[in-house]
Structures are given as structure tokens and as C-alpha cells.
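Bug report

Summary: C-alpha cells for 10 kDa chaperonin differ between web form and batch submission.
Environment: batch mode, default settings.
Steps: 1) Submit the sequence below via batch. 2) Compare with the web form result.

Sequence submitted:
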Amino acid sequence: MSEKTHHDKLPIRMLHDRVLVRQDAAEGERRSGGGILIPATAAVGRRLAWAEVVAVGQNVRTVEPGDRVLYDPEDRAEVEVRGTPYVLMRERDLHAVAADRFEGSEDSTGLYL
């Protein structure tokens, strides 16, 4: 029998260059660009994953809450906050950022999600 403590309700602030993200739902089966069905159990080389930024530390400069980021799921620290699983990482561990604010900017590649 577990009882909730006062610590379960404390506010959380991310520190330094840390980024807290919520992973996208597991995809399971997916289709290739040519329409070939790829089963969830298929062995894939090092595959990066997308996640939504939930919170950032005060020294984070390139991402904001609500952005989508590309990261290596093998390089992660998982944490559960109030029953929800998250991934905690450093800003430098992110590979790409997708956000509406980049539309039409020089930093944009012209690719869209």
C-alpha cells in the first residue's frame, strides 16, 4: 500500500542545459516510403526518435516547450513524474528541432514533418 507524500506535489524546475521530453507513442508496424510494411519486430540499425519538449533548463538556448526534437533513444535517462514517463537529456544530445517559429527562416531545411 503506497501513500502519496508531500514530495509528489512539489513544482519541478529543470536545471542548466537539461531538456525534459515526452516520447512519441510506440509506432509498432510502419510503412516505408515505397509502401512496404515493416513489422515492429524488424531489426533496424540505429534509429533516431522524435519527442515533444515538456520543460527546459535556464541555459537551454535552441528549444522551447512544445517543440519536437530528434534524439537517439539509446542515449537517454528515463524518469517518471506524477505517473507519466519522460526522457531527460542535455541540449547537446539533440540532433534536430522542429517548430513553427522556424518557418521561412534561413535555418530551415525546407523539410516538413
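Above is the batch result. After comparison, the two runs are identical; trailing whitespace caused the diff. Strands lie at 18-23, 30-31, 37-38, 49-56, 68-71, 77-81, 84-90, 94-98. The mean pLDDT is 77.
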